[in-house]
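Weekly puzzle thread! Below is a chain. First person to post its structure in token form gets bragging rights.
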Amino acid sequence: QVQLVESGGGLVQAGGSLRLSCAASGSIFGIFDMGWYRQTPGQQRELVAVISSGGTPNYGDSVKARFTISRDNAKNTVYLQMNSLKPEDTAVYYCNAEIRRTAIVWNNYWGQGTQVTVSS
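Winning reply:
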């Protein structure tokens, strides 16, 4: 089975930085897009950043110029470097990936989420 495990969340003061990691493990033949989404209570999940297998990134409007997404394909891991954090960035951050398990089977997977809290 495939699972995504996030790490790196926590409490940080406004203006600080955090680096999130998400490692995919299990029966994996290949991984297409990997990315990060976030969600606060009562709100829909929003795109933070997505990166293609070739390294092309795409960012949500609220995090452009502050966050950087990257990946290490050899480790099946995606990272999110978050700088200049604001209280508005407080949310549960979820890892997402499109994973090829067989020649014809592709599935979309979500991690359990990691809490990021930014204090004033």
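Puzzle host: Confirmed. Bonus trivia for everyone else. The longest strand covers residues 30-39.
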